[in-house]
Amino acid sequence: MSGSGLEWSRTDRAKAAAKLMVGWVALLWLLEVVDVVSGHALDGLGITPREPSELVDVVPAAFIHFGFAHVAANSVPLLVMGFLAALGGIRRFAALCLAIIVADGLGVWLVAPAHTNTAGASGLIFGLFGFLLVSGFVERRPLGVLVGLLVGAVWGGSILLGLALLIVTIAIYILGRNRVRTSGKGFSSAHGGS
Known about the structure:
Mean pLDDT: 86
Shape: globular
Number of strands: 0
Number of domains: 1
């Protein structure tokens, strides 16, 4: 903290945000180790939709993952976007994360397909993504606007690229199926047919 003892310097905020996010991501990895060692006993803390007893899992579900690949996929975005959001203050960040986790968990509980189990930090990551996109504009902070634009370009660009690849893949699949169906010769040799 700075000399007055009441305000944090930028360096102090950055150190606190970094320690918090490294600790948070480390906790996710530790929980997954415990989950694997316990025979996936923690997976039950995911959210099963529209079951009243599952409402208690709304918060824990954001910390549970279904395998190391799932934790790995969430680690870097959570680390980076969490760090950026936490620079605004730890109390504010904690309140923001709680609001996002509860809203996301309730949304999953309300609309996810029946008989599914949903867990992971993805909802929190998308909530932080949205917060970082708009907070600079709402608060009229030039640096916040720049951060929002950078986050939008990097993660928004990767999301759009992923969607574009999915659309192209589906189109190729549909066009390929139509070509095979309309050929009148059964399946093509690529599908093991005539």
